[in-house]
Amino acid sequence: MSNLIARRLEQYTEKRPQEVLIVHIEIEGEPDEIAIFKGFSSSLMRPTAFDPDVPVLPNTAKILKIDRVASPYNPTQPDYLQQGLTWDSIQPLLSQVGV
Q: What are the boundaries of each domain within the chain?
């Protein structure tokens, strides 16, 4: 996954601050979940670097699915808006907000 993809997802959440994206990815065969909210990304399963220039979504990551969740995010009872989106199926939403 390129940093452009990660940046577009972050920009989407800047324009839709009432949403959190939970991105399910695979990095070198290992699963990870990334929460993206108000333009910031953080791993839910691995340490996240303090330096915002260190990408949370590395170029080698493969997107498995993307869930849209209402903010505030409650991991024990998420309020799903949509689940199981693919990179292709989220494109219209990104286009709607101009990213």
A: 3-89
